[in-house]
Design goal:
Number of strands: 9
Order of helices and strands: HEEHEEHEEEEHEH
Largest sheet: 5 strands, antiparallel
Strand order of the largest sheet: 5-8-7-6-9
Radius of gyration: 33 Å
Length: 258
């Protein structure tokens, strides 16, 4: 084979290798530009929105609300709008009750909330099918004023029974109902706070709690046969024990109740 044929063969091989490499890059998309989706930036005024789903009867807390920019063309007069120079309005909404269901991220409207002291506040705070009953307490039976609206409590009944074989009356206590939500203390549906925003214990004579109709009947009977005391529950065990009680059938929730 002469020299010219060798050179032509080598050039052909080089062209084939380059062509194959270019074809591979083209089919793998290496040469195609990658489109990057950019999240649109909303520059409108800030409104108060729900940080999570808020069913009817939810008592708003500080972590239920936040400000979020909202398109100016979608602003409604019923929204809570943050204006320059005005203080944060979310603190004023803490303790109010949701009148209509609100989804996560939805703006809060003035007509969707009921404030303490407004007509229908307590009825709005109740879940569907639930009832409100009041229990008389003292400083001793009311945990020294450390029970606040929104807390969970157990009810303890203390009564006299005849001692076996002695005929002498004995004092006995037992927890008759567990994990009840406190709606109000006296006529206050929100805790009393100091200048730093901390809840202040206060004296009260009545505690209003949320119950099912069946539990309301039990409490009415218990008040006639003995003294009812409150036992404050830890925040850590409220949800777990309530779910266990529902699963075992100890607590019967009406149809449609939350």
């Amino acid at each position: 084979m002469d020299r010219k044929k060798v050179i032509l063969l080598v050039c052909a091989l080089l062209i084939a290798v380059v062509t194959a490499f270019m074809a591979r890059s083209m089919f793998s998309g290496g040469g195609a530009p990658t489109a990057v989706a950019q999240k649109p930036v909303v520059t409108g005024p800030k409104v108060i929105v729900a940080t999570r789903a808020l069913p009817v009867g939810t008592i708003l807390t500080a972590d239920s609300l936040r400000y979020q920019p909202w398109p100016e063309e979608l602003i409604e007069e019923a929204y809570f709008i943050k204006k320059d120079g005005e203080p944060d309005q979310t603190a004023n909404l803490v303790g109010t009750v949701v009148r209509n269901p609100i989804t996560a991220g939805q703006p809060i409207t003035q007509g969707s909330l009921v404030a303490p002291g407004d007509r229908g506040f307590l009825a709005a705070a109740l879940g569907p099918g639930m009832r409100a009953v009041s229990v008389p307490v003292s400083t001793l039976t009311g945990v020294s004023g450390f029970v606040f609206p929104g807390d969970r409590v157990d009810l303890v009944l203390t009564q006299n029974v005849n001692g076996a074989g002695t005929g002498q009356p004995l004092k006995v206590s037992e927890t008759i109902i567990r994990n009840l939500r406190v709606l109000a203390t006296d006529q206050r549906a929100t805790p009393t706070v100091d200048e730093k925003g901390n809840s202040v214990p206060s004296k009260y004579k009545l505690v209003t709690i949320e119950v099912t109709p069946r539990i309301a009947e039990k409490i009415a009977v218990a008040q006639t046969i003995g003294t009812i005391s409150l036992s404050l529950r830890s925040l850590a065990d409220n949800a777990a024990e309530l779910e266990m009680a529902l699963a075992s059938g100890d607590v019967k929730v009406p149809n449609g109740a939350t």
